[in-house]
Design brief:
The complex is a heterodimer of chains A (271) and B (283). Chain A is mainly α. Chain A has 13 helices and no strands. The radius of gyration of chain A is 24 Å and the shape is flat. In chain B, the strands form two sheets. A six-stranded mixed sheet of chain B has the order 6-7-8-3-9-10, sandwiched between helices. Chain B has a four-stranded antiparallel sheet with strand order 2-1-4-5, with helices on one face. In chain B, a hairpin with a 2-residue loop joins strand 4 (83-88) and strand 5 (91-92). The termini of chain B are far apart. Classes of the chains: A mainly alpha (271), B alpha/beta (283). The A-B interface holds A 165, 167-168, 170-178, 181, 185-186, 189-190, 192, 264, 266-267, 269-271 and B 76, 78, 96-98, 100-102, 104, 106, 108, 110-113, 121-122, 124-128, 154-158, 175.
Protein backbone atom coordinates (compact mmCIF):
# COMPACT_ATOMS: atom_id res chain seq x y z
CA UNK A 1 0.00 0.00 0.00
CA UNK A 2 2.78 2.39 0.94
CA UNK A 3 4.58 1.53 -2.23
CA UNK A 4 1.55 2.45 -4.30
CA UNK A 5 1.06 5.77 -2.52
CA UNK A 6 4.76 6.58 -2.72
CA UNK A 7 4.68 5.82 -6.39
CA UNK A 8 1.68 8.07 -6.84
CA UNK A 9 3.43 10.91 -5.08
CA UNK A 10 6.41 10.66 -7.37
CA UNK A 11 4.65 10.34 -10.69
CA UNK A 12 2.96 12.67 -13.10
CA UNK A 13 -0.02 10.42 -13.84
CA UNK A 14 -1.57 7.43 -12.09
CA UNK A 15 -0.55 5.18 -14.96
CA UNK A 16 3.13 6.00 -14.62
CA UNK A 17 2.69 5.49 -10.91
CA UNK A 18 1.41 2.00 -11.61
CA UNK A 19 4.37 1.34 -13.87
CA UNK A 20 6.62 2.04 -10.91
CA UNK A 21 5.02 -0.71 -8.89
CA UNK A 22 7.51 -3.48 -8.50
CA UNK A 23 5.82 -6.11 -6.41
CA UNK A 24 2.69 -8.25 -6.75
CA UNK A 25 1.02 -6.70 -3.73
CA UNK A 26 1.36 -3.30 -5.31
CA UNK A 27 -0.19 -4.53 -8.56
CA UNK A 28 -3.08 -6.09 -6.63
CA UNK A 29 -3.76 -2.76 -4.95
CA UNK A 30 -3.85 -1.02 -8.31
CA UNK A 31 -6.17 -3.69 -9.72
CA UNK A 32 -8.49 -3.21 -6.77
CA UNK A 33 -8.37 0.52 -7.31
CA UNK A 34 -9.38 0.22 -10.95
CA UNK A 35 -12.32 -2.04 -10.05
CA UNK A 36 -13.51 0.33 -7.31
CA UNK A 37 -13.24 3.28 -9.67
CA UNK A 38 -15.37 1.49 -12.28
CA UNK A 39 -18.03 0.64 -9.70
CA UNK A 40 -18.10 4.20 -8.43
CA UNK A 41 -18.50 5.47 -11.98
CA UNK A 42 -21.41 3.09 -12.54
CA UNK A 43 -23.03 4.17 -9.26
CA UNK A 44 -22.60 7.82 -10.15
CA UNK A 45 -24.07 7.45 -13.65
CA UNK A 46 -26.97 5.37 -12.28
CA UNK A 47 -27.89 7.98 -9.67
CA UNK A 48 -27.47 10.83 -12.07
CA UNK A 49 -29.58 9.36 -14.90
CA UNK A 50 -32.02 7.34 -12.73
CA UNK A 51 -32.39 4.98 -15.67
CA UNK A 52 -34.19 1.70 -15.05
CA UNK A 53 -31.85 -0.14 -17.43
CA UNK A 54 -28.76 0.59 -15.40
CA UNK A 55 -29.64 -0.41 -11.87
CA UNK A 56 -26.64 0.37 -9.66
CA UNK A 57 -23.93 -1.41 -7.66
CA UNK A 58 -25.65 -0.64 -4.38
CA UNK A 59 -28.95 -2.14 -5.56
CA UNK A 60 -27.23 -5.20 -7.00
CA UNK A 61 -25.28 -5.69 -3.79
CA UNK A 62 -28.48 -5.49 -1.77
CA UNK A 63 -30.16 -8.04 -4.03
CA UNK A 64 -27.18 -10.39 -3.70
CA UNK A 65 -27.24 -10.04 0.08
CA UNK A 66 -30.89 -10.97 0.01
CA UNK A 67 -30.25 -14.00 -2.17
CA UNK A 68 -27.39 -15.18 -0.01
CA UNK A 69 -29.84 -15.51 2.86
CA UNK A 70 -31.40 -18.49 1.11
CA UNK A 71 -32.84 -18.45 -2.35
CA UNK A 72 -29.58 -18.44 -4.32
CA UNK A 73 -28.23 -21.80 -3.27
CA UNK A 74 -30.89 -23.98 -4.84
CA UNK A 75 -30.42 -22.45 -8.26
CA UNK A 76 -26.66 -22.28 -8.05
CA UNK A 77 -26.54 -25.92 -7.00
CA UNK A 78 -28.58 -26.96 -10.02
CA UNK A 79 -26.27 -25.14 -12.41
CA UNK A 80 -23.15 -26.45 -10.72
CA UNK A 81 -24.48 -29.98 -10.76
CA UNK A 82 -25.20 -29.78 -14.47
CA UNK A 83 -21.69 -28.51 -15.07
CA UNK A 84 -20.13 -31.19 -12.87
CA UNK A 85 -21.91 -34.10 -14.53
CA UNK A 86 -21.45 -32.65 -18.01
CA UNK A 87 -17.74 -32.02 -17.45
CA UNK A 88 -17.11 -35.52 -16.17
CA UNK A 89 -18.95 -37.13 -19.07
CA UNK A 90 -17.52 -34.82 -21.70
CA UNK A 91 -13.94 -35.06 -20.44
CA UNK A 92 -14.03 -38.86 -20.20
CA UNK A 93 -15.47 -39.35 -23.66
CA UNK A 94 -13.33 -36.61 -25.17
CA UNK A 95 -10.14 -38.04 -23.66
CA UNK A 96 -10.94 -41.61 -24.68
CA UNK A 97 -11.77 -40.66 -28.26
CA UNK A 98 -8.81 -38.31 -28.43
CA UNK A 99 -6.38 -40.98 -27.25
CA UNK A 100 -7.79 -43.69 -29.51
CA UNK A 101 -7.93 -41.57 -32.64
CA UNK A 102 -4.61 -39.94 -31.85
CA UNK A 103 -2.82 -43.28 -31.82
CA UNK A 104 -4.79 -45.20 -34.45
CA UNK A 105 -4.37 -43.24 -37.68
CA UNK A 106 -6.82 -45.38 -39.67
CA UNK A 107 -9.53 -44.73 -37.12
CA UNK A 108 -8.66 -41.05 -37.16
CA UNK A 109 -9.00 -40.78 -40.92
CA UNK A 110 -12.39 -42.42 -40.59
CA UNK A 111 -13.90 -40.52 -37.70
CA UNK A 112 -12.14 -37.21 -37.22
CA UNK A 113 -13.69 -35.42 -40.22
CA UNK A 114 -17.12 -36.46 -38.96
CA UNK A 115 -16.35 -35.04 -35.53
CA UNK A 116 -15.08 -31.81 -37.07
CA UNK A 117 -18.30 -31.53 -39.07
CA UNK A 118 -20.42 -32.03 -35.95
CA UNK A 119 -18.36 -29.42 -34.12
CA UNK A 120 -19.68 -26.82 -36.52
CA UNK A 121 -23.21 -27.17 -35.21
CA UNK A 122 -24.09 -24.10 -33.14
CA UNK A 123 -24.86 -24.78 -29.52
CA UNK A 124 -28.11 -22.87 -29.53
CA UNK A 125 -29.42 -25.04 -32.35
CA UNK A 126 -28.76 -28.20 -30.38
CA UNK A 127 -30.63 -27.06 -27.26
CA UNK A 128 -34.18 -27.49 -28.61
CA UNK A 129 -33.20 -30.89 -29.97
CA UNK A 130 -31.96 -32.01 -26.58
CA UNK A 131 -35.09 -30.69 -24.92
CA UNK A 132 -37.17 -32.86 -27.23
CA UNK A 133 -34.91 -35.86 -26.66
CA UNK A 134 -34.40 -35.56 -22.94
CA UNK A 135 -37.36 -33.55 -21.74
CA UNK A 136 -37.30 -30.37 -19.71
CA UNK A 137 -35.21 -29.82 -16.60
CA UNK A 138 -31.79 -31.09 -15.70
CA UNK A 139 -30.90 -33.26 -18.73
CA UNK A 140 -30.73 -30.92 -21.74
CA UNK A 141 -28.40 -28.50 -19.97
CA UNK A 142 -26.17 -31.34 -18.78
CA UNK A 143 -25.99 -32.84 -22.24
CA UNK A 144 -25.14 -29.45 -23.71
CA UNK A 145 -22.30 -29.07 -21.24
CA UNK A 146 -21.14 -32.57 -22.06
CA UNK A 147 -21.14 -31.84 -25.77
CA UNK A 148 -19.17 -28.62 -25.43
CA UNK A 149 -16.61 -30.21 -23.14
CA UNK A 150 -16.35 -33.30 -25.33
CA UNK A 151 -15.33 -31.40 -28.44
CA UNK A 152 -12.75 -29.20 -26.76
CA UNK A 153 -11.17 -32.02 -24.76
CA UNK A 154 -11.24 -34.31 -27.80
CA UNK A 155 -9.37 -31.92 -30.09
CA UNK A 156 -6.77 -31.13 -27.45
CA UNK A 157 -6.22 -34.76 -26.48
CA UNK A 158 -6.03 -35.78 -30.12
CA UNK A 159 -3.24 -33.30 -30.79
CA UNK A 160 -1.44 -34.37 -27.67
CA UNK A 161 -1.72 -38.09 -28.34
CA UNK A 162 -0.53 -37.60 -31.92
CA UNK A 163 2.50 -35.61 -30.88
CA UNK A 164 3.94 -37.81 -28.15
CA UNK A 165 7.72 -38.00 -28.52
CA UNK A 166 8.45 -41.07 -30.66
CA UNK A 167 11.89 -41.47 -29.12
CA UNK A 168 10.31 -41.87 -25.71
CA UNK A 169 8.03 -44.56 -27.05
CA UNK A 170 10.89 -46.33 -28.80
CA UNK A 171 13.12 -46.35 -25.74
CA UNK A 172 10.38 -48.06 -23.79
CA UNK A 173 9.76 -50.55 -26.59
CA UNK A 174 13.44 -51.49 -26.63
CA UNK A 175 13.16 -52.24 -22.93
CA UNK A 176 10.47 -54.74 -23.87
CA UNK A 177 7.23 -52.84 -23.27
CA UNK A 178 4.18 -54.07 -25.15
CA UNK A 179 1.56 -51.82 -26.73
CA UNK A 180 -0.59 -51.51 -23.62
CA UNK A 181 2.38 -50.70 -21.42
CA UNK A 182 3.54 -48.01 -23.82
CA UNK A 183 0.05 -46.54 -23.66
CA UNK A 184 -0.20 -46.65 -19.89
CA UNK A 185 3.29 -45.46 -19.16
CA UNK A 186 4.02 -42.98 -21.93
CA UNK A 187 1.07 -41.90 -24.03
CA UNK A 188 -1.42 -41.61 -21.17
CA UNK A 189 0.70 -39.45 -18.87
CA UNK A 190 1.98 -37.40 -21.79
CA UNK A 191 -1.58 -36.60 -22.81
CA UNK A 192 -2.69 -35.50 -19.35
CA UNK A 193 -1.30 -32.03 -19.95
CA UNK A 194 -3.36 -31.72 -23.12
CA UNK A 195 -6.52 -33.09 -21.52
CA UNK A 196 -6.27 -30.57 -18.72
CA UNK A 197 -5.66 -27.69 -21.09
CA UNK A 198 -8.72 -28.73 -23.08
CA UNK A 199 -10.70 -28.83 -19.85
CA UNK A 200 -9.57 -25.36 -18.84
CA UNK A 201 -10.66 -23.93 -22.17
CA UNK A 202 -13.96 -25.76 -21.95
CA UNK A 203 -14.97 -24.51 -18.50
CA UNK A 204 -16.22 -21.02 -19.42
CA UNK A 205 -18.10 -22.54 -22.36
CA UNK A 206 -19.62 -25.14 -20.08
CA UNK A 207 -20.96 -22.40 -17.84
CA UNK A 208 -22.51 -20.74 -20.88
CA UNK A 209 -23.90 -24.05 -22.11
CA UNK A 210 -25.51 -24.83 -18.76
CA UNK A 211 -27.08 -21.41 -18.50
CA UNK A 212 -28.32 -21.54 -22.09
CA UNK A 213 -29.81 -24.97 -21.58
CA UNK A 214 -31.59 -23.77 -18.50
CA UNK A 215 -32.89 -20.67 -20.19
CA UNK A 216 -34.47 -22.70 -22.94
CA UNK A 217 -35.57 -25.73 -21.00
CA UNK A 218 -36.64 -25.12 -17.49
CA UNK A 219 -37.21 -22.85 -14.59
CA UNK A 220 -34.37 -23.99 -12.39
CA UNK A 221 -30.75 -22.97 -12.16
CA UNK A 222 -29.16 -19.61 -12.80
CA UNK A 223 -30.45 -19.57 -16.36
CA UNK A 224 -33.95 -19.94 -15.03
CA UNK A 225 -33.38 -17.03 -12.65
CA UNK A 226 -32.12 -14.97 -15.57
CA UNK A 227 -35.19 -15.67 -17.71
CA UNK A 228 -37.55 -14.98 -14.83
CA UNK A 229 -35.82 -11.68 -14.12
CA UNK A 230 -35.95 -10.72 -17.80
CA UNK A 231 -39.63 -11.46 -18.04
CA UNK A 232 -40.27 -9.13 -15.13
CA UNK A 233 -37.85 -6.46 -16.40
CA UNK A 234 -35.98 -6.88 -13.12
CA UNK A 235 -32.61 -5.39 -14.17
CA UNK A 236 -31.14 -5.60 -10.68
CA UNK A 237 -31.76 -9.33 -10.53
CA UNK A 238 -30.29 -9.79 -13.98
CA UNK A 239 -27.11 -7.97 -13.04
CA UNK A 240 -26.96 -9.90 -9.79
CA UNK A 241 -27.25 -13.18 -11.71
CA UNK A 242 -24.44 -12.12 -14.03
CA UNK A 243 -22.24 -11.32 -11.04
CA UNK A 244 -22.93 -14.74 -9.57
CA UNK A 245 -22.15 -16.43 -12.90
CA UNK A 246 -18.95 -14.45 -13.27
CA UNK A 247 -17.80 -15.42 -9.79
CA UNK A 248 -18.75 -19.03 -10.45
CA UNK A 249 -16.65 -18.98 -13.60
CA UNK A 250 -13.67 -17.54 -11.78
CA UNK A 251 -13.99 -20.19 -9.11
CA UNK A 252 -14.20 -22.99 -11.67
CA UNK A 253 -11.10 -21.71 -13.39
CA UNK A 254 -9.27 -21.52 -10.08
CA UNK A 255 -10.13 -25.12 -9.29
CA UNK A 256 -9.02 -26.26 -12.72
CA UNK A 257 -5.71 -24.41 -12.37
CA UNK A 258 -5.13 -26.01 -8.98
CA UNK A 259 -5.81 -29.41 -10.47
CA UNK A 260 -3.46 -28.67 -13.34
CA UNK A 261 -0.68 -27.55 -11.03
CA UNK A 262 -1.02 -30.72 -9.00
CA UNK A 263 -1.19 -33.09 -11.96
CA UNK A 264 1.65 -31.37 -13.76
CA UNK A 265 3.79 -30.70 -10.69
CA UNK A 266 6.74 -32.33 -12.48
CA UNK A 267 6.69 -29.48 -14.96
CA UNK A 268 6.68 -26.72 -12.40
CA UNK A 269 9.28 -28.52 -10.36
CA UNK A 270 12.23 -26.77 -11.98
CA UNK A 271 13.81 -24.33 -9.57
CA UNK B 1 33.74 -41.76 -6.27
CA UNK B 2 31.99 -44.88 -5.07
CA UNK B 3 32.80 -46.64 -8.32
CA UNK B 4 36.45 -47.16 -7.46
CA UNK B 5 35.36 -49.03 -4.33
CA UNK B 6 32.98 -51.17 -6.36
CA UNK B 7 35.79 -52.03 -8.74
CA UNK B 8 38.09 -53.08 -5.94
CA UNK B 9 35.44 -55.36 -4.53
CA UNK B 10 34.87 -57.16 -7.81
CA UNK B 11 38.54 -57.69 -8.53
CA UNK B 12 40.70 -57.08 -11.52
CA UNK B 13 38.40 -57.36 -14.55
CA UNK B 14 41.25 -58.05 -16.95
CA UNK B 15 41.95 -61.37 -15.25
CA UNK B 16 38.38 -62.50 -15.90
CA UNK B 17 38.75 -62.43 -19.67
CA UNK B 18 38.77 -66.00 -21.05
CA UNK B 19 41.76 -67.29 -22.97
CA UNK B 20 39.83 -68.50 -26.03
CA UNK B 21 38.09 -66.15 -28.47
CA UNK B 22 34.52 -65.49 -27.31
CA UNK B 23 31.74 -65.97 -29.87
CA UNK B 24 30.40 -63.15 -32.00
CA UNK B 25 27.69 -61.11 -30.41
CA UNK B 26 26.87 -58.99 -33.42
CA UNK B 27 27.56 -59.92 -37.02
CA UNK B 28 26.87 -57.46 -39.76
CA UNK B 29 27.30 -58.58 -43.35
CA UNK B 30 26.86 -56.47 -46.46
CA UNK B 31 24.62 -54.04 -44.62
CA UNK B 32 23.11 -51.47 -46.93
CA UNK B 33 20.47 -48.99 -45.99
CA UNK B 34 18.81 -46.50 -48.27
CA UNK B 35 16.05 -44.06 -47.65
CA UNK B 36 13.88 -42.01 -49.93
CA UNK B 37 13.32 -38.31 -49.46
CA UNK B 38 11.17 -36.36 -51.91
CA UNK B 39 11.43 -39.06 -54.50
CA UNK B 40 15.21 -39.27 -54.38
CA UNK B 41 16.76 -42.46 -53.02
CA UNK B 42 19.92 -41.98 -50.97
CA UNK B 43 22.23 -44.67 -49.63
CA UNK B 44 23.00 -44.07 -45.98
CA UNK B 45 25.17 -47.17 -45.75
CA UNK B 46 26.79 -49.21 -48.43
CA UNK B 47 27.86 -52.81 -47.82
CA UNK B 48 29.16 -52.65 -44.25
CA UNK B 49 30.78 -55.76 -42.75
CA UNK B 50 31.52 -55.88 -39.05
CA UNK B 51 31.76 -58.62 -36.45
CA UNK B 52 31.78 -57.81 -32.75
CA UNK B 53 32.76 -60.40 -30.15
CA UNK B 54 31.19 -60.79 -26.76
CA UNK B 55 32.38 -58.24 -24.24
CA UNK B 56 34.15 -56.27 -26.91
CA UNK B 57 34.02 -52.49 -26.84
CA UNK B 58 33.83 -51.26 -30.41
CA UNK B 59 33.73 -47.58 -31.29
CA UNK B 60 32.23 -46.37 -34.56
CA UNK B 61 33.70 -43.06 -35.67
CA UNK B 62 32.93 -41.01 -38.71
CA UNK B 63 31.80 -37.64 -40.06
CA UNK B 64 28.24 -36.44 -39.64
CA UNK B 65 25.76 -38.26 -41.78
CA UNK B 66 28.03 -41.22 -42.47
CA UNK B 67 25.47 -43.71 -41.25
CA UNK B 68 27.04 -44.86 -38.00
CA UNK B 69 23.78 -44.26 -36.16
CA UNK B 70 22.04 -46.24 -38.90
CA UNK B 71 24.26 -49.23 -38.11
CA UNK B 72 23.28 -48.91 -34.47
CA UNK B 73 19.61 -48.67 -35.33
CA UNK B 74 19.79 -51.77 -37.51
CA UNK B 75 21.34 -53.76 -34.67
CA UNK B 76 18.62 -52.42 -32.35
CA UNK B 77 15.94 -53.45 -34.80
CA UNK B 78 14.71 -49.89 -35.21
CA UNK B 79 15.52 -50.02 -38.92
CA UNK B 80 15.36 -52.81 -41.47
CA UNK B 81 18.39 -53.13 -43.71
CA UNK B 82 17.71 -52.58 -47.39
CA UNK B 83 20.25 -55.29 -48.22
CA UNK B 84 22.51 -57.48 -46.12
CA UNK B 85 22.03 -59.13 -42.76
CA UNK B 86 22.39 -58.18 -39.15
CA UNK B 87 22.72 -61.06 -36.70
CA UNK B 88 22.53 -60.81 -32.96
CA UNK B 89 23.67 -63.89 -31.04
CA UNK B 90 23.60 -65.83 -34.29
CA UNK B 91 19.99 -64.99 -35.12
CA UNK B 92 18.87 -62.30 -37.57
CA UNK B 93 17.38 -59.15 -36.10
CA UNK B 94 13.81 -59.02 -37.38
CA UNK B 95 11.92 -57.06 -34.77
CA UNK B 96 12.88 -54.60 -32.05
CA UNK B 97 15.86 -56.09 -30.25
CA UNK B 98 14.87 -56.15 -26.61
CA UNK B 99 18.04 -57.93 -25.48
CA UNK B 100 20.05 -54.75 -25.78
CA UNK B 101 20.20 -51.42 -24.02
CA UNK B 102 20.05 -48.28 -26.13
CA UNK B 103 21.29 -44.89 -25.05
CA UNK B 104 20.73 -42.08 -27.52
CA UNK B 105 21.92 -38.50 -27.74
CA UNK B 106 18.60 -37.21 -26.52
CA UNK B 107 17.82 -38.34 -23.03
CA UNK B 108 14.33 -39.71 -23.33
CA UNK B 109 13.52 -39.70 -19.66
CA UNK B 110 9.84 -39.56 -18.79
CA UNK B 111 9.45 -36.06 -17.38
CA UNK B 112 6.51 -36.95 -15.15
CA UNK B 113 8.48 -39.58 -13.25
CA UNK B 114 11.09 -38.99 -10.60
CA UNK B 115 14.67 -40.15 -11.16
CA UNK B 116 14.07 -43.32 -9.14
CA UNK B 117 10.83 -44.08 -10.98
CA UNK B 118 12.51 -43.53 -14.33
CA UNK B 119 15.21 -46.03 -13.41
CA UNK B 120 12.59 -48.44 -12.13
CA UNK B 121 10.51 -48.49 -15.26
CA UNK B 122 12.20 -51.41 -17.00
CA UNK B 123 11.52 -53.60 -13.97
CA UNK B 124 7.81 -52.73 -14.07
CA UNK B 125 7.29 -54.36 -17.43
CA UNK B 126 5.45 -57.63 -17.91
CA UNK B 127 8.34 -59.18 -19.85
CA UNK B 128 10.44 -58.97 -16.71
CA UNK B 129 8.29 -59.82 -13.69
CA UNK B 130 9.98 -58.57 -10.54
CA UNK B 131 8.73 -58.23 -7.02
CA UNK B 132 8.40 -54.74 -5.57
CA UNK B 133 11.12 -55.38 -3.03
CA UNK B 134 13.55 -56.75 -5.59
CA UNK B 135 12.92 -53.84 -7.93
CA UNK B 136 13.42 -51.32 -5.14
CA UNK B 137 16.68 -52.96 -4.19
CA UNK B 138 17.93 -52.81 -7.78
CA UNK B 139 16.92 -49.18 -8.13
CA UNK B 140 18.76 -48.29 -4.94
CA UNK B 141 21.84 -50.13 -6.17
CA UNK B 142 21.71 -48.30 -9.49
CA UNK B 143 21.33 -44.92 -7.84
CA UNK B 144 24.42 -45.68 -5.78
CA UNK B 145 26.30 -46.89 -8.83
CA UNK B 146 25.80 -43.72 -10.88
CA UNK B 147 26.28 -41.49 -7.87
CA UNK B 148 22.84 -39.91 -7.64
CA UNK B 149 22.15 -40.56 -3.99
CA UNK B 150 19.88 -37.87 -2.62
CA UNK B 151 18.31 -37.09 -5.98
CA UNK B 152 15.95 -40.07 -6.20
CA UNK B 153 12.80 -38.00 -5.85
CA UNK B 154 13.82 -35.23 -8.19
CA UNK B 155 12.04 -34.81 -11.50
CA UNK B 156 14.15 -34.62 -14.70
CA UNK B 157 13.35 -30.93 -14.96
CA UNK B 158 15.18 -30.44 -11.67
CA UNK B 159 18.30 -32.31 -12.72
CA UNK B 160 21.30 -31.04 -14.64
CA UNK B 161 22.20 -32.49 -18.05
CA UNK B 162 24.88 -34.72 -16.61
CA UNK B 163 22.55 -36.07 -13.96
CA UNK B 164 19.89 -36.83 -16.54
CA UNK B 165 22.44 -38.77 -18.56
CA UNK B 166 23.33 -40.76 -15.47
CA UNK B 167 19.68 -41.54 -14.86
CA UNK B 168 19.39 -42.66 -18.50
CA UNK B 169 22.44 -44.88 -18.08
CA UNK B 170 21.07 -46.34 -14.85
CA UNK B 171 17.67 -47.10 -16.34
CA UNK B 172 19.37 -48.89 -19.25
CA UNK B 173 21.71 -50.93 -17.07
CA UNK B 174 19.15 -51.94 -14.46
CA UNK B 175 17.81 -54.76 -16.60
CA UNK B 176 21.34 -55.96 -17.26
CA UNK B 177 21.37 -56.09 -21.05
CA UNK B 178 24.16 -58.14 -22.56
CA UNK B 179 24.92 -55.43 -25.08
CA UNK B 180 24.82 -51.66 -25.05
CA UNK B 181 24.30 -49.46 -28.07
CA UNK B 182 25.35 -45.90 -27.39
CA UNK B 183 24.79 -43.07 -29.83
CA UNK B 184 26.99 -40.13 -28.83
CA UNK B 185 25.41 -40.23 -25.38
CA UNK B 186 27.75 -37.71 -23.82
CA UNK B 187 27.87 -35.25 -26.70
CA UNK B 188 25.88 -32.59 -24.90
CA UNK B 189 28.05 -32.60 -21.79
CA UNK B 190 31.00 -30.39 -21.02
CA UNK B 191 34.50 -31.83 -21.40
CA UNK B 192 35.20 -32.62 -17.74
CA UNK B 193 31.84 -34.24 -17.15
CA UNK B 194 32.29 -36.23 -20.34
CA UNK B 195 35.56 -37.69 -19.05
CA UNK B 196 33.92 -38.63 -15.78
CA UNK B 197 31.04 -40.34 -17.60
CA UNK B 198 33.45 -42.17 -19.93
CA UNK B 199 35.32 -43.42 -16.92
CA UNK B 200 32.11 -44.63 -15.32
CA UNK B 201 31.14 -46.30 -18.58
CA UNK B 202 34.41 -48.16 -18.78
CA UNK B 203 34.06 -49.42 -15.21
CA UNK B 204 30.45 -50.45 -15.57
CA UNK B 205 30.84 -52.26 -18.87
CA UNK B 206 33.89 -54.13 -17.64
CA UNK B 207 32.31 -55.20 -14.35
CA UNK B 208 29.13 -56.29 -16.06
CA UNK B 209 30.90 -57.85 -19.04
CA UNK B 210 28.80 -55.96 -21.55
CA UNK B 211 29.36 -55.87 -25.31
CA UNK B 212 29.38 -52.25 -26.42
CA UNK B 213 28.85 -50.49 -29.71
CA UNK B 214 29.71 -46.86 -29.19
CA UNK B 215 29.06 -44.25 -31.83
CA UNK B 216 30.98 -41.00 -31.59
CA UNK B 217 32.40 -38.31 -33.78
CA UNK B 218 35.21 -37.75 -31.30
CA UNK B 219 38.19 -39.90 -32.24
CA UNK B 220 39.93 -39.33 -28.90
CA UNK B 221 36.89 -40.60 -27.01
CA UNK B 222 36.82 -43.68 -29.24
CA UNK B 223 40.46 -44.55 -28.69
CA UNK B 224 40.22 -43.93 -24.94
CA UNK B 225 37.46 -46.44 -24.41
CA UNK B 226 37.42 -48.98 -27.21
CA UNK B 227 39.10 -52.30 -27.92
CA UNK B 228 38.67 -51.59 -31.61
CA UNK B 229 37.98 -48.41 -33.53
CA UNK B 230 36.04 -48.50 -36.81
CA UNK B 231 36.40 -45.46 -39.05
CA UNK B 232 33.56 -44.78 -41.48
CA UNK B 233 33.70 -42.88 -44.71
CA UNK B 234 31.34 -40.06 -45.58
CA UNK B 235 27.91 -40.89 -47.01
CA UNK B 236 27.26 -43.46 -48.37
CA UNK B 237 28.96 -44.97 -45.34
CA UNK B 238 31.54 -47.70 -45.83
CA UNK B 239 34.07 -48.92 -43.36
CA UNK B 240 37.33 -47.28 -44.20
CA UNK B 241 39.57 -48.88 -41.62
CA UNK B 242 39.43 -50.91 -38.40
CA UNK B 243 42.22 -50.78 -35.86
CA UNK B 244 42.82 -52.51 -32.54
CA UNK B 245 43.64 -50.21 -29.67
CA UNK B 246 46.89 -51.55 -28.18
CA UNK B 247 46.53 -49.81 -24.81
CA UNK B 248 45.99 -52.38 -22.04
CA UNK B 249 43.06 -52.35 -19.64
CA UNK B 250 42.08 -51.02 -17.21
CA UNK B 251 42.80 -47.60 -18.64
CA UNK B 252 43.02 -44.36 -16.72
CA UNK B 253 40.59 -42.37 -18.83
CA UNK B 254 41.85 -39.10 -17.43
CA UNK B 255 45.46 -39.74 -18.44
CA UNK B 256 45.24 -42.14 -21.37
CA UNK B 257 45.70 -39.29 -23.80
CA UNK B 258 49.27 -38.85 -22.64
CA UNK B 259 50.11 -42.44 -23.56
CA UNK B 260 52.40 -42.51 -26.65
CA UNK B 261 50.38 -45.38 -28.13
CA UNK B 262 47.33 -43.15 -27.96
CA UNK B 263 49.08 -40.42 -29.91
CA UNK B 264 50.29 -42.81 -32.60
CA UNK B 265 46.91 -44.38 -33.16
CA UNK B 266 45.21 -41.02 -33.02
CA UNK B 267 47.46 -39.64 -35.72
CA UNK B 268 47.02 -42.68 -37.93
CA UNK B 269 43.26 -42.72 -37.66
CA UNK B 270 42.91 -38.97 -37.90
CA UNK B 271 44.60 -39.07 -41.27
CA UNK B 272 41.93 -41.52 -42.40
CA UNK B 273 39.15 -39.56 -40.83
CA UNK B 274 39.96 -36.04 -41.90
CA UNK B 275 39.55 -36.73 -45.60
CA UNK B 276 36.10 -38.09 -44.91
CA UNK B 277 35.18 -35.18 -42.66
CA UNK B 278 35.97 -32.72 -45.43
CA UNK B 279 33.86 -34.76 -47.85
CA UNK B 280 31.11 -34.96 -45.28
CA UNK B 281 30.76 -31.21 -44.95
CA UNK B 282 29.66 -30.93 -48.52
CA UNK B 283 26.42 -32.76 -47.72
Amino acid sequence: MQAAVAGLAKSATPFTAYLRTTNRAGAAVWRFGVAIAALLAWEAVARWTASIWLSSPSLVAARLADWLRGSLYVHLAVTMEEIAVGVVLGTTLGAVFGLLLGRLPTLATLLRPLIVALYNLPLLALAPLFIMLFGLGFMPATVLVGVVVFFLVFFNTFSGAESVDEDMIRSLQIMGANRIEVFRKVIGPASVAWIISGLKVALPYSLAAATTGEMLAGGNGMGGVLTAAAQQFDMTSMYATLVVLMLAGVLLNLCATRLETWLLRWRHAAG
Amino acid sequence: MQLADNLRQVGDPAADRPAADPPFKVEITGLTHSFATRGKVTDALSAVDLAVREREFVALVGPSGCGKTTVLNCVAGLLRPTRGTVNYDGKPVTALNTRIGYLSQKDTLLPWRTAADNIRIAMELKCRPTSRAAANAKVAAMIDLVGLKGFERHYPAELSGGMRKRVALARTLIYEPEALLLDEPFGALDAQLRLIMLDQLQTLTTIRRITVLFVTHDLGEAISLADRVVVFSARPGRIRVIRDVPIPRPRDIFRVRFDPRFARLHEELWDELKDEVVKGTDI
